[in-house]
Amino acid sequence: MSTFTIDTSTSRATPSPVPGKRTTAPSIRGRKVDGRTETPIVMLTAYTMRMAQLLDPHCDMLLVGDSLGQVIYGLPSTIPVTMEMMCAHGAAVVRGSWHALVAVDMPFGSYEASPEQAFASASRIMKETGCAAVKLEGGEAMAPTIEFLAHRGIPVIGHVGLTPQAVNVLGGYGARGREGAEASKIAADALAVDQAGAFCIVVEGVLEQIATDVARSVSAPIIGIGASAECDGQVLVTEDLLGLFERTPRFVKRYADLASEIGQAAAAYASEVRSRAFPTADQTYRPKS
Ligand code: KIV
Q1: pLDDT in tens, 207-243
Q2: Which of 47, 55, 63 is the best mutation target for the ligand 1 pocket, counting ligand atoms within 8 Å of the beta carbon and taking the most?
Q3: Which residue among 23, 98, 145, 172 is buried most deeply as judged by most CB within 10 Å?
């Protein structure tokens, strides 16, 4: 059974406050003209309806990242993330947004075996969430799959460089491309994904110069994370920029300190409950006079 209310740019049933105005994959792709994106593309992760509502007015794209495995579920990596998790959170984010393009990550194991497996998974994600695109990790090896999906009505975001689903092969989450051969491989991966038809490409955790070179040489917009200011856009995990975690990667800039604010609010609540200062007359029901 479907879990969402249809809300895509073309739906007549859209409940959007501005119907028909949701950002589309072609419009994101079209932002890069002659190798240059004038105004960088803004992307953030969102996993819940309320966060989507708050971020949507400010973002071109919302990514329901499989980072939700760690951020929401406390998992050790993105490897155990399931299709059910991605579909439930993807539907919530679509319900909470009307302007940004919503892209949903394909979880580990849902697309690597074959283009046909990828199509079955991606079409399920799109049907169950109402999202307008999927993202999958991998370079040259995934190019035939990206082409297969793109030719069958599925807008795809590529993801190269540090690909967290490959953590067991990479051996950790350190920046990639410190050696010449790996730098060339990242550039070749980005080019292959571009030529396969990805409408934009996330480049994560690579030396700055590699990201700059890739952004200049590849025709699809490059969305950087731990990459370069020269990219065509940027993405961060929202909980990182809000300061919800003590430890964040080096490339994260904290724009708020919500962990402290939440701690202070919880401490004030606990103190007032224990002293019976909460609830007061303002928060209790009395007979109407
Ligand atoms: O899963 C995720 O949130 C991501 C972004 C960090 C790009 O892939």
Answers
A1: 999 999 999 999 999 999 999 999 999 999 999 999 9
A2: 63
A3: 145
Closest residue by Cα to atom 5, ligand 1, is: 65
**Which among 91, 48, 67, 62 is positioned nearest to 245, based on CA atoms?**
67
pLDDT tier at 1, thresholds 50, 70, 90? very low
Residue 19 confidence (pLDDT): 56
| Catalytic residue from among 140, 204, 239, 246 | 204
Distance CA 85, CA 106 (A): 11
- Residue whose CB lies within 8 A of the most ligand 1 atoms, among 44, 110, 125, 204, for a mutation test: 204
74: alpha, beta or left? (left if phi > 0; alpha if psi -120 to 50)? left
Mean predicted lDDT score pLDDT of the chain: 94
Please tell me whether residue 35 adopts helix, strand or coil conformation: coil
> Is residue 225 in contact with ligand 1, taking CB distance under 6 Å?
yes
Report whether pLDDT(285) > 90.
yes
What is the separation, in whole angstroms, between the first and last Cα of the chain?
48
